[in-house]
Structures are given as structure tokens and as C-alpha cells.
């Protein structure tokens, strides 16, 4: 049974795009129906493969944005300049098109409802995608475990999931903080700046509460935040990281 499940995850499947939603000027969410989808955990990713008319193939890994709700999965893709795959997914792919996927992949950077303790999520840019899947799974499970999201983003126009995050923030068990690095909205008390030790101390769960911390984003962001967390006294074994970009994994 286990071997069958592994085989299914490693087999390319053809899904059908059922919806696309524009998130920002450079990012969109793609909803795909995959009839034989084996299910996934919040935080996992999958591979997407495109095949050109001349037979050339290119594949990339993308985090899954949705909680598992059957055969439908959601990907949120941010366009990478000069990329091979993301420009097609963001600008060309349309409802009704086939999309070849394989997965899910990953077992470390995941959240499971049965986990003990608070959940601290820290995302940079499109690194919020797998964290959004965790928040959605948290809501779907009606979990009462306290959760906090610290979302570092360049400017208000770059925020992915604007409406979804507002809805999530209505839960008494979830707190959301934005850290703007280039341009802050009117009324924001903190001037534009990167995530630092002072901010983490003021908005993140303290080490003594033993949260499981998930950090996702570009490699420099992830490494800097992880170092700050350990310096603040967080147990390194409870700090889980996911990097993306040229030297990282899923986007």
C-alpha cells in the first residue's frame, strides 16, 4: 500500500485548470483538478512540467497553497523574470488548459493538526504560499492551537492573498503582522525595514512557549531569520525552513 502511494506521488499526472485568480501584478493563483490526486499535507509542494511543441521540457517545483479538499489543488505562482515556466503559468495558462503535475513532495516542512504547541509562521514575499496552506488547514480542522503569521513584503501592492488574510485574521486563534521593507501603507507605525530581532521579540511567540516555527522565502531571508530565532533562544530543532529561488527549492 505504501509503495503504491509513493508510486502515485512520483508519477506525472495531467490535471485541468478550473480557475485562475490574479493576486498581484506579478502573481496568480491557479486552481487545478487532478482526478487521481493522492492528497497532501499543508506545506508540501509539487512539480509542474511544461512541454513545448518541439518536445523540449522544463519543470519547476511550486508550493501547494490549499489545504487538502479532494482532487482540487491550488498553486500560487509569482513570475520570475526570464524564467522558463513561471511566465507561462502567470500570463498564458487559462481555464480549461491541461497542466502536468507530480507530487506531493516533502515531509519536513509540513503542519499536522495533531502537533503540539503554538504555530509561528514567517514568510518573505511568495514564501507566504505554503504558510497560507497551513493557515487554511488550521481553519479547515477548526484547530484552536494559537497561530501567528509574520509576513515580510516589499509594499502593500505586493501582498499576496490580501482578502484571504483579512478573513483569516478574523479568527481569535490567529494573529497576522505585516513587515514592509520598501514602502509602508499610511498609518503604519513601523517604518519600512527588514525583519529584525526587535520585531521578532515583539510579535513572534517567545522561545519558552516552544512554538514550531516555519520560515519560508528567498534563501538570504530564511537564513537571516533562522539565525535571529536561534540567537533569541528558539530550539533549532523546532525551526523548520524552506528556501526558494536559484539556490533553493519550491517557489
UniProtKB/TrEMBL annotation:
Cofactors that this protein relies on: FAD
Pfam families per record: FAD_binding_6 (PF00970), NAD_binding_1 (PF00175)
Domain of life: Bacteria
Alphabetically ordered keywords of this record: 2Fe-2S, Iron, Iron-sulfur, Metal-binding
Keyword Iron (UniProt): yes
Annotated ranges, domain FAD-binding FR-type: 10-111
Statement: the UniProt record of this protein carries the keyword Chloroplast: no
Name of protein: Ferredoxin reductase
Amino acid at each position: 500500500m505504501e509503495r503504491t502511494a509513493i508510486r502515485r506521488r512520483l508519477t506525472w499526472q495531467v490535471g485541468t485548470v478550473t480557475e485562475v485568480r490574479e493576486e498581484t501584478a506579478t502573481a496568480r493563483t491557479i486552481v487545478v483538478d487532478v482526478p487521481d490526486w493522492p492528497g497532501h499535507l499543508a506545506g508540501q509542494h509539487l512539480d509542474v512540467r511544461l512541454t513545448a511543441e518541439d518536445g523540449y521540457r522544463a519543470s519547476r517545483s511550486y508550493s501547494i497553497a490549499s489545504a487538502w479538499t479532494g482532487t482540487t489543488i491550488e498553486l500560487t505562482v509569482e513570475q520570475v523574470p526570464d524564467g522558463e515556466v513561471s511566465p507561462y503559468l502567470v500570463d498564458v495558462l487559462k481555464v480549461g488548459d491541461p497542466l502536468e503535475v507530480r507530487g506531493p513532495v516533502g515531509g519536513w516542512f509540513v503542519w499536522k493538526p495533531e502537533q503540539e504547541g503554538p504555530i509561528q509562521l514567517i514568510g518573505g514575499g511568495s514564501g507566504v504560499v505554503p504558510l497560507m496552506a497551513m493557515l487554511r488547514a488550521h481553519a479547515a480542522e477548526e484547530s484552536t492551537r494559537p497561530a501567528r503569521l509574520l509576513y515580510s513584503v516589499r509594499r502593500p501592492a505586493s501582498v499576496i492573498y490580501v482578502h484571504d488574510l483579512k478573513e483569516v485574521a478574523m479568527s481569535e486563534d490567529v494573529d497576522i503582522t505585516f513587515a514592509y521593507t520598501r514602502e509602508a501603507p499610511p498609518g503604519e507605525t513601523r517604518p519600512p525595514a527588514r525583519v529584525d530581532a526587535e520585531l521578532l521579540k515583539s510579535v513572534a511567540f517567545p522561545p519558552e512557549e516552544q512554538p514550531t516555527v516555519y520560515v519560508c522565502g528567498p534563501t538570504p531571508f530564511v537564513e537571516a531569520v533562522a539565525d535571529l530565532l536561534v540567537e533569541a533562544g528558539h530550539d533549532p530543532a523546532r525551526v523548520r525552513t524552506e528556501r526558494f529561488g536559484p539556490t533553493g527549492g519550491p517557489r
